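Hi all, posting the design record for the shared folder.

TITLE: backbone redesign
STEP: 1 of 1
STRUCTURE INPUT:
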């Protein structure tokens, strides 16, 4: 029989394909997609089998042997391997980095793998053989005799410990074929904590309304067609999109298929997870629903992954990276809140979970269902062009009214209060009324500590980080200033470091300041704050939400992290304290973000039987994003905003690629960025339009300067490989690092 040869992609920084000979004993367990260990530069490394067959230009006789097959089934099914190759080209990164993203670390290094090794006798020795063995290798004979008397396979670790022997003794007998070693996996049932929280929400299916029925019928039809298709479910907040997802999942599972259900990480609260799990497990009795998020222990992640890879489980609910879950016979991918920027990974590989979901569905021939109350303009334009099918839920369930939105003009309020206002009279009055009626309020702040910087009212001095050119953030709890980019910190000064004036004011609206302002107007209310500062501790987020749900908190103050996917019937007032912030950042998506935020935030109010009220405070009440959001007029907003995007040829009309250069020497950075830009312009010509190079909005981070270059193009798949090729051949100085980001979502 001819030797079996495989091409392997070693991981950990080796972006190439190396060939190996497969030993006879491993032949049956190797396939394309197998995770293996191979010798590279005299060390064993993990790798992934990318192809079966000999190399073109290498003497097969000289090939080294493959050392180990980690799992007896492919770690990446063929569709994921194809997806990995496509992503490496599209996002200009090494295939190894994609494979490492697709296969969780816990799976790759088998850490926490709850398994035990067993030993058993396979071949009985004759009396003479045993005598010979006793003479030659008494330890081996002892082990053999012990095992020979056992009725079934024994746990290796226990046997060796009991006989005081080393693993080498067993290995010698295994090698001679006298003993066999087998691995038994111990199943670990994870996620019980979610049920223990006493938050289980009734998970009965609802009777669908007409719009939901139409949407479900459309998705069922495309699932029935058994081929690739994308549907965009645009449903106003509270229109019952989840019910549509669940019915679609039901259909996919009943036809024997597998399902990936993506939600933004912050939406993976115990409430949603518990609700989904109980519904999904009711749909497919006997099937486990795997949950996938960043708080899993290594062991839990490994178990979930194994359950999917072996087909024990067919459905996974998770954040971004769950798009790579090894679900078998994938039929449906649901992406909830598809507009969420959190789907984009902000480190290599810089992929967009929603876009990758669509592509995986395409490569597999599955259906992709994208849902949102405020679809991204990218997806909406695809629907307008007929590439996606548009499904709409324009009514809230039970014909509940969308909440009334009050816009408060902070400029007028500032004149009234004769100071920069935190809470307007309107908002305070509304909160007091809620408190008296024992109803609940949520106050949103646009971004954590966005401008809780320290500002001298005399000379205008702002304390900046000395390593990054951004303002330091003031933290009242420990009287410290911190840089949110590099983490540098120092005590907050009592006097202005520049002019010495004693009244340095805390500018802007950190969550802490709002919390304090609420305490002043509602001294008897129970107030909780929720932002990434206070939520650092693992279970705090869940605790606060549970208390809020139980009615033990009157006012919840937080950043938009509390805005996602939460459903609190007793919340009848939502205040957005600072609607302007996201419009004043230099990002062409600022309007879209503001609109999305306003609509999503407003959607948190009035989910129960009582009508909701929303108060939006702003210095720019005339802005389009604010005006359209008053009536949750998505279509109106999209039309106006798409027109602007088209005029400027911004995404979604063209793709955008960001190229960042960083290093310690600003002159050198500028020089090389300019040389590079010239080369690109000359080589790629018409296919890209360049902007820059220029200093980044944040010029310095952690003592490194930053320059950037933008490319606009209609042909990412042609331009990116070309950029990658040019980049590899360019003479970069050693102290310059550069990063390509295709389809970036945050421009500052
Ligand atoms: P969305 O995600 O569109 O904002 P949800 O899926 O969270 O809305 O649904 C809002 C609420 O309406 C949930 O409490 C859900 O259980 C309920 N619901 C969904 N469909 C129906 C229906 N057909 N009849 C009654 N209630 C429903
Ligand atoms: Zn800094």
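Okay, here is what came back for every position:
SEQUENCE:
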């Amino acid at each position: 029989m001819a030797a079996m040869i495989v091409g392997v992609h070693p991981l950990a920084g080796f972006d190439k394909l190396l060939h190996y000979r497969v030993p006879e004993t491993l032949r049956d367990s190797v396939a394309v997609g197998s995770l293996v260990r191979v010798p590279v530069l005299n060390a064993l490394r993990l790798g992934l089998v990318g192809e079966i067959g000999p190399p073109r230009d290498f003497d097969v006789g000289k090939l080294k042997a493959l050392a180990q097959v980690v799992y007896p089934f492919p770690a990446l099914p063929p569709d994921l391997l194809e997806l990995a190759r496509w992503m490496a080209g599209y996002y200009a990164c090494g295939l190894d980095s994609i494979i490492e993203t697709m296969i969780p670390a816990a799976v790759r290094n088998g850490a926490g793998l709850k398994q035990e090794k067993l030993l058993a006798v396979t071949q009985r020795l004759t009396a003479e053989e045993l005598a010979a063995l006793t003479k030659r290798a008494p330890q081996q004979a002892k082990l053999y005799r012990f095992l020979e008397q056992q009725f079934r396979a024994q746990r290796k670790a226990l046997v060796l410990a009991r006989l005081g022997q080393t693993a080498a003794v067993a290995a010698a007998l295994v090698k001679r074929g006298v003993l066999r070693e087998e691995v038994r996996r111990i199943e670990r049932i994870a996620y019980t904590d979610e049920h223990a929280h006493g938050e289980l929400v009734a998970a009965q299916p609802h009777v669908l309304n007409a719009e939901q029925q139409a949407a479900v019928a459309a998705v069922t039809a495309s699932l029935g067609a058994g081929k690739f298709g994308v549907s965009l479910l645009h449903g106003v907040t509270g229109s019952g999109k989840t019910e549509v997802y669940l019915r679609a999942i039901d259909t996919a599972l009943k036809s024997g298929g597998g399902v990936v259900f993506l939600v933004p990480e912050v939406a993976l609260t115990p409430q949603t997870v518990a609700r989904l799990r109980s519904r999904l497990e009711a749909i497919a009795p006997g099937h486990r629903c795997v949950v996938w998020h960043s708080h899993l222990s290594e062991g839990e992640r490994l178990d979930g992954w194994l359950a999917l890879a072996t087909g024990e489980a067919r459905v996974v609910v998770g954040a971004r990276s769950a798009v790579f879950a090894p679900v078998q016979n994938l039929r449906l991918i649901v992406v909830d809140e598809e507009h969420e920027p959190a789907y984009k990974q902000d480190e290599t590989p810089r992929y967009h979970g929603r876009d990758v979901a669509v592509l995986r569905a395409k490569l597999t021939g599955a259906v992709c269902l994208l849902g949102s109350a405020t679809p991204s303009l990218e997806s909406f334009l695809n629907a307008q062009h007929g590439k996606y099918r548009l499904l709409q839920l324009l009514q809230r369930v039970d014909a509940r009214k969308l909440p009334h939105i009050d816009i408060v003009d902070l400029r007028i309020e500032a004149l009234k209060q004769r100071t920069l206002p935190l809470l307007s009279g309107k908002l305070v009055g509304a909160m007091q009324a809620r408190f008296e009626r024992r109803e609940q309020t949520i106050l949103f702040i646009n971004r954590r500590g966005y401008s809780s910087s320290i500002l001298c009212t005399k000379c205008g001095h702002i304390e900046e980080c000395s390593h990054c050119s951004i303002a330091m953030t003031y933290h009242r709890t420990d009287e410290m200033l911190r840089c949110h980019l590099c983490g540098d910190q120092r005590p907050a000064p009592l006097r202005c470091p520049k002019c010495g004036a004693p009244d340095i004011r805390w500018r802007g609206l950190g969550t802490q300041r709002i919390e304090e302002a609420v305490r002043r107007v509602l001294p008897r209310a129970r107030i909780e704050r929720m932002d990434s500062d206070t939520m650092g501790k693992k279970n705090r987020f869940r605790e606060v939400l549970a208390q809020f749900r139980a009615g033990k908190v009157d006012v919840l103050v937080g950043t938009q992290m509390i805005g996602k996917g939460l459903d609190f019937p007793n919340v009848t007032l939502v205040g957005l304290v600072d609607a302007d912030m996201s419009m004043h950042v230099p990002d062409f998506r600022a309007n879209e973000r503001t609109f999305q935020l306003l609509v999503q935030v407003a959607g948190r109010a009035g989910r129960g039987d009582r009508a909701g009220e929303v108060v939006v405070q702003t210095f720019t009440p005339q802005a389009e994003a604010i005006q359209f959001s008053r009536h949750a007029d998505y279509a109106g907003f999209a039309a106006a905003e798409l027109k602007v995007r088209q005029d400027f040829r911004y995404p979604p009309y063209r793709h955008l690629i960001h190229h960042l250069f960083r290093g310690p020497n600003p002159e050198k950075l500028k020089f090389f960025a300019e040389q590079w830009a010239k080369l690109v312009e000359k080589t790629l010509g018409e296919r890209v339009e360049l902007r820059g190079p220029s200093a980044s909005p944040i010029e310095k981070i952690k003592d490194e300067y930053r320059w950037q270059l933008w490319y606009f193009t209609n042909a990412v798949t042609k331009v990116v490989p070309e950029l990658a090729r040019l980049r590899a051949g360019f003479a970069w100085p050693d102290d310059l690092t550069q990063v390509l980001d295709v389809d970036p979502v945050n421009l500052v």
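COMMENT: The two ends are 60 Å apart (CA to CA).
Let me know if anyone wants the other runs.
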